[in-house]
Write a structure and sequence with these properties.
58% of the residues lie in helices and 10% in strands. The chain is built from 21 helices and 14 strands. Strand 4 (248-249) and strand 5 form a beta hairpin. The longest helix has 90 residues, at 328-417. Keywords: Cell membrane, Coiled coil, Membrane, Transmembrane, Transmembrane helix. This is Wzz/FepE/Etk N-terminal domain-containing protein.
């Protein structure tokens, strides 16, 4: 029997054999999720997803059964940005925007939903007395019957309710407005849609009529001012003409007209005088032969006398031949010819005298006109100076009269436009009562609830996984503990076939080979190779199975194996001596080890935790225990339990060659893996590998 722990000599203390290991900070647990892990996450949390889908679908079905049916009706209005051209000078000029009027029609969407249009429709349909829109439900009516009815104005509530039930949309690439109204009654929905469409047209007509009336009123208000300005300008012109003695006739000054007329007369007189002077000069130049002048040639008297003279000359010629020169007829004819020639001479002299008289008279008239012209020119110089100011006043008067006339004409035009509707819009489709309800669409809502529930459930599953991540893959485990994953064992949740058992043995054997290949220890190392298996507390069954599988796999390959179960006998009233007794130095290893029935693996239980041992002494006896085991065994497998909950395993952790962590795929929380890895680090070691158990495999 070994001496008590207090009697161990100090020179054999464990610190002389193995110094206390340094503390290694654990690597933070990684919650990295790979794309291939999403399927496992969703499969593991499938009940949460299905529950979410079921709840959302059930709520949707209840909603569709309890929600009153709604019906939608649509009225269509076509709006042409080019208004009707009723008059030339329209108060509302029609201009089409560069985009073809789309912007103008788009703005009418807001007009159709404006308070003015909706209030017209409410008044036309008496909607304020409809309980569906006036905000008075069944409870309100009952309370009104009990405490007195509230007959106040419900227009605001009705307007708000109608706006919520109204949708005005413009079809793409067309100038058509769709007025959509939803109500519990199909007839009411159609009636309201038509009422709003008609109210829109009436509102547009009223707006244009009001614009024309406002313009007419504004112009009419300016007419009186313009009329007064015309009177002032006219009075200024008349006053100025009176002050300067300026008489107008036919729009011109009388003095100007007199001067013009006198100038015309003077020109004619000068022309007449020049003609008469030329005639007199010609007569004077002819001298003794005035009958050669043009006046003598044109005189009928001279022409008649010349004809008589020619006749007498012819008679005298005949008488001279027939009768002789002394015949009385000859003498009488000669006497007549002489008298006739005297008459011609006197007539020619009279023509000369008449020409001179006419010339003198014309010259006198010319001089008189020239004198008058000189007098009027003197007066005209003074009048011209005054006419400059008069013409300025006259132009001002003409301008004011033109503005007044335009104002008067525009006032008449705008006054007439108040009765003309130039809006180029009309209802092209009257709303008809709907044959099918528009809400709630049961099939669509259920379909959406199913897919929405799936999306919500998947999101909740991913959020739950993010808040509490689990071990999803070997790579994630390897990143978390910074050690390789030696294999993935199938679980024992279902009955296994022979092939599954062979796979389990193969994985365990492969793990042993990888451990042996990675172990670097001298050939003359006095301690037996050892593997300590640890896990979180919730993975106790998987840890025990993995540890026992490793031991059996080594034994199946002909190796002598010692299996130390730190949990065997834990909690019993009278446990058998075990590893704790060996670590206290109370028992040798041979005294506490035994072979399991039908197995080639030696077993060592937990032992009796009757006394607390010191860490340094426990390390010494652990070293000695492994040295003793080296004589009888080739491998020691230790089921270390949950290291975070049992510090008695510290000596075994410090002496173990390999420390394997066991976790369940899709089940073990990453925080438990981190706490276990941290416990190993606190004990002065780092995990050297991990084995995963897939319960779903």
């Amino acid at each position: 029997m070994q001496p008590p722990l207090l009697m161990v000599p100090q020179q054999n203390a464990p610190e002389a054999i193995a110094p206390a290991p340094a503390y290694y900070a654990p690597a933070p647990a990684q919650a990295t999720v790979e794309l291939g892990d999403l399927g496992r996450i969703l499969l593991r949390r499938r009940f949460l997803i299905l529950l979410t889908v079921a709840l959302l679908t059930a709520v949707t079905l209840v909603y569709t059964m309890l929600t009153p049916a709604l019906y939608s009706s649509t009225a269509q209005i076509i709006i042409d940005p080019q208004d009707l051209q009723v008059v030339t000078n329209d108060v509302n000029p029609s201009r089409i925007s560069p985009d073809g009027g789309i912007t103008q029609v788009e703005s009418q969407v807001s007009v159709a939903q404006s308070n003015g249009v909706l209030l017209r429709a409410i008044a036309a349909t008496d909607l304020t007395h409809n309980p569906e829109f006036n905000g008075q439900g069944v409870l309100d009516r009952w309370l009104g019957m009990v405490f007195g009815s509230d007959d106040g104005d419900r227009t605001a509530e009705t307007l708000d309710a109608l706006r919520r039930r109204l949708a005005v949309k413009r079809d793409d690439k067309v100038l058509v407005l769709n007025i959509i109204v939803t109500a519990k009654s199909a007839d009411l929905a159609a009636k309201l849609a038509n009422a709003i469409a008609q109210a829109y047209l009436d509102d547009q007509a009223a707006a244009r009529s009001k614009a024309a009336a406002d313009a007419s009123d504004a112009i009419s208000a300016r007419l009186e001012d313009q009329r007064k300005r015309v009177e002032q300008a006219a009075n200024a012109v008349e006053t100025y003409k009176a002050e300067h003695n300026m008489v107008m006739a036919a729009g011109n000054l009388v003095s100007d007209q007199e001067l013009t007329d006198l100038n015309t007369q003077l020109t004619a007189a000068q022309t007449r005088t020049a003609q008469l002077k030329a005639q007199v000069d010609q007569l004077r130049r002819q001298g003794s032969a005035p009958d050669a002048t043009s006046e003598a040639m044109r005189s009928p008297v001279i022409a008649s006398l010349r004809a008589q003279e020619a006749t007498l000359v012819d008679q005298i010629s005949q008488f001279g031949t027939a009768l002789g020169p002394r015949h009385p007829s000859m003498i009488s004819a000669q006497q007549q010819l002489s008298d006739l020639r005297k008459l011609i001479s006197r007539e020619l002299g009279r023509l000369v005298a008449a020409a001179e008289t006419d010339y003198e008279r014309a010259l006198a008239n010319q001089k008189e006109l020239e004198a008058k012209m000189a007098s009027l020119k003197g007066k005209s110089l003074d009048t011209d100076q005054a006419s400059v100011k008069l013409r300025e006043l006259q132009r001002d008067l003409d301008a004011v009269r033109t503005v007044y006339a335009n104002y008067l004409q525009r006032a008449q035009e705008t006054r007439e436009q108040t009765n003309v509707n130039s809006t180029n819009a009309r209802i092209i489709s009257q709303a008809m009562p709907a044959l099918k309800k528009s809400w709630p669409p049961k099939g669509l809502l259920v379909f959406g609830a199913i897919f929405g529930g799936l999306a919500l459930g998947i999101g909740m599953a991913l959020i739950a996984e993010y808040l509490s991540p689990t071990v999803l893959s070997a790579n994630q485990m390897q990143s978390a503990i910074e050690a390789p994953v030696l294999g993935v064992l199938p679980g024992r949740g279902r009955r296994r076939s022979g092939a599954a058992a062979q796979k389990t043995d193969a994985v365990a054997g492969l793990a042993l080979q990888r451990i042996a290949a990675a172990t670097r220890r001298p050939h003359d190392w006095p301690l037996v190779p050892s593997i300590l298996v640890a896990s979180p507390a919730d993975d106790k069954a998987q840890r025990s199975r993995v540890a026992w599988q490793l031991a059996n796999a080594a034994a199946a390959r002909g190796r002598r194996v010692l299996f130390i179960d730190i949990n065997a006998g834990k909690g019993q009233k009278d446990p058998q001596p075990g590893v704790l007794d060996v670590l206290r130095g109370e028992y040798p290893l041979e005294a506490v080890s035994r072979y399991a029935p039908g197995s080639s693996v030696a077993l060592v239980g937990r032992g009796r935790p009757t006394a607390v041992f010191q860490e340094a002494q426990a390390l010494y006896f652990a070293h000695r225990m492994l040295a003793e085991a080296n004589h009888s065994f080739e491998l020691v497998v230790v089921d270390g339990g949950a290291l975070a909950d049992d510090l008695n395993v510290l000596p075994l952790v410090a002496m173990a060659d390999e420390i394997l962590l066991v976790a369940r795929l899709n089940a073990t929380p990453m925080r438990d893996v981190a706490s276990t890895s941290e416990a190993v680090s606190v004990m002065g070691r780092l995990p050297t590998g991990a084995v995963l158990v897939d319960e779903a495999a």
